[in-house]
Request: fold
Amino acid sequence: MGNILEVNHLKKYFKTNRGVLHAVDDITFTIERGKTLGIVGESGCGKSTTGRCVMRLIEPTGGEILFEGRDLMKLSKREMRAKRNDIQIIFQDPFSSLDPRCTVMQTIAEGVKVTGKYRTKKEVEMRVIELMRIAGLAERLINAYPHELDGGRRQRIGIARALAVEPKLIICDEPVSALDVSIQAQILNLLRELQEELGLTYVFITHDLAVVNHISDEIMVMYLGQTVEKAPAEELFTNPIHPYTKALLSAIPIPKVGAKKERVLLRGEVSSPINPGDECRFAKRCPHARAECRTSCPQLQEKSPGHFAACHLFGSENKTTSL
Amino acid sequence: MIEVKRESPAAEDEVLDIRDLTVQFVTEDEIVEAVNCISIHLKKGEILGLVGETGAGKTTTALAVLNLVPDPPGVIKSGSIRVCGKNMLSAAPKELEQIRGGDVSMIFQDPMTSLNPVFTVGDQIAESILLHEKCSRKEAGAKAEEMLELVGIPRERAGEYPHQFSGGMKQRVVIAIALACNPKLLLADEPTTALDVTIQAQVLDLMCGLKEKLDTSMIFITHDLGIIAEICDRVAVMYAGRIIEEGTLEEVFNHTKHPYTEGLFNSLPNIADRTAKLRPIPGLMPDPTRLPAGCAFAPRCPYAKPSCIDKPQSSRSFSATHKVLCSAYDDPSFRIHREEA
Reply:
């Protein structure tokens, strides 16, 4: 069905006292309409910044964001505002992303009114109730305030609010990370059903690999502002190339007795994204780092159709290196 | 057999003995029943995983062990808690100070807030050593540096402040403080929840290594069944302040009996099969101020019968170690859907 979103060479640098922080450093990706792109990585890798840059909630430093063929970077503030009807975001923390002084009705109605399709009070209310039903909220909660509701229900409000403007693309920024597993599963199922019913496209940002595997069609792994690997979900989990991806996958605790496997334990900590030099950013923690890893930054290359990785090791004669 | 145990003094290798503990939070308008009549026994060198969702009473249980339940509003209504044979509920404040940090210590979830920002990490580790061991400031400092090395931080960094460390390193400092006086029992309250997976793997690895080296017993509180499978010997599943299923790791994971435990497993995305549909537990945890007379899980339970709601749950043992709190097993032919592994 073609690509709904095409992001080319997206960059976001922040100026800090200690230098330039490369939060997002040359990220390129596309998403097909109706599909889900998962973005995984550890805290500080730039995944949320990427999500926000796509909506221009944070103004990118450079790059191109083509949404349905139009470059969002070239839109004026007013035009961008209108475009946000097509792109919505669901935030991580349902406790702080809702206005505590607005009832469920008021929160959702705001979006409904923006569409301009529902004019009378009655029509707006009908639409709000419909959205609540879609998001799995009981109608009796229409006048409740966020503090009266638990995390799962609050996240449902966040979803109903995002759906109110009838978006085509939703950026889900860790939407289930703050929820208990049984509630998390309810919300994940809801997001999947909505995608099927409404043909939505998702950018799903999370640090939870089990969740991202479950919901994504394609997965992009980020490390310190860069893409280190990108592949269809199944391929990434069965055939990871990048040493960082391998370490991530092996670090997932599996809820099965005796599932313990050989673990790639990383040494050290994530290095600073401030003024990164021309080296592989993972080299300091990489168990296979070589001289060239410390002198040049590897580029993203296609290994097999649709499977990209940025690593000096693969492609060279000892690419298997029996990791 | 249990009766006999009650009479005799705590067995030699029994590190923790909680009996019929009930903790409530009493406010003017309502009573929150946080922990309802739970019993936990822990032997030397054992790791018990305590699983459950937010509000199940896991942290309150751990705080009760240290006699640190905030009072008011917290009230320990009944029960007894013995750590290495010492009664925590009747001990004098001076004695408690000796036990806390000495015999038993705790690691909190958030390493960012459990360290003091104005003292160096070395001083913070040394403080606990000075309190519990007869030694000079200098000796304590040297021991603190040793502890840092034990948790994988170079000893030169003892003079640095918490803000100079990353999240994973701060959590290691907290672990170093907790282990500084070789406690016999360690209460770890979601020690890795705030950390990234690769750092979590490092910390778990460290904790397992320390357990082997020092033979410390642990209660590991988490909501992550994956971590439980990795490091625990025994598991206790809590729901609405009660332990609804407990047993060895193998019994609870491979021969699951309680419908709630089954629901937890069904809610987890399966790494091996990404197309499998999640089967979440419908509904929400009950309000702890208004717990039903019968089983608190009954309103969400797919197997519940009308009698479950108003009749107290019956306890059933499937082996010497595997115990379940569920009335459905009064019917001997009852089975849950989850297949035995």
About this structure: Residues 1-10 of chain B have pLDDT under 50 and may be disordered. The CA atoms of residues 207 and 213 of chain B lie 10 Å apart. Chain B touches chain A at residues 53-54, 166-169, 196-202, 204-205, 223-230, 249-250, 253-254, 263-271, 274, 277-282, 284, 341 (CB under 8 Å). DSSP finds eleven helices and twelve strands in chain B.
